[in-house]
Amino acid sequence: MLGHLGFSYVGLIYLLMLFIPNIIWSKNLPIDYDYSQENKILLLFERIGQVCCSCSILIFSDFNIAPFSVWSLWLIASFLLMILYEICWIRYYSNENTEENFYRSFCGIPVPLASLPVMAFMLLGIYGKVIWLIASAIIIGIGHIGIHIQHLKAIK
Fold first, then answer.
1. How many CB atoms lie within 10 A of CB 76?
2. What ranges do the domains of the chain cover?
3. What number of other Cβ atoms are within 10 A of residue 150's Cβ?
């Protein structure tokens, strides 16, 4: 449950899927975006979770693809959530860049651009049986999803 140290190419792919759209977003923030009122405690959870997730997803080889078993379904489910995450980014970029568009639900999933990667990382942690990624996903989830929900409430 602690994990085997070694590079995870699956982790690198996940981080690229996560960071590339976020880098593009940071250059094209929603026209009405205001982060000045973000809860500092949630922000602290988010930052700690980001560092812990980024590190643990790369340094444990347990996330790499193994021979297929029933356990592989966790990896497949996790990757499907990341694909949905990318679809949500495409949906956002192909519409008006507003906060309302940024935070709108997707197939009943609230704040999908925050919740989908958190769920994907949690499932990847389960697949790899690495408690560090599971705990990190919970920490970032508290902060990141919490902040997104606050923004959503503020615009309604």
1. 12
2. 9-155
3. 14
pLDDT in tens, 45-65: 999 999 999 999 999 999 999
Residue that is written with structure tokens 């679809």 in the block: 87
Region 92-120: mean pLDDT is: 93
Q: What are phi and psi of 77, to 5 degrees?
A: -60, -40
Distance CA 49, CA 4 (A): 20
Percent with pLDDT over 90 in the chain: 82
pLDDT value of position 1: 75
- Global pTM reads 0.94
Question: Tokens for 52?
Answer: 């812990």
Phi/psi of residue 106, each to 5°? -135, 120
Determine the pLDDT at residue 98. 86
List alpha helices for 28-71, DSSP H: 40-59
CA distances from residue 108 to 29, 101, 112, 115 in whole angstroms, order as listed: 24, 14, 9, 12
Query: Could you tell me which residues come within 8 angstroms of residue 77 by beta carbon, excluding any fewer than 6 positions away?
Result: 123
**DSSP symbol at 12:** H
> In the structure encoding, which two tokens stand for residue 35, read together?
């982060």
SS3 category, 109 = strand
- Average pLDDT for 115-138: 98
Instruction: Judge contact between 55 and 156, C-beta under 8 A.
Output: no
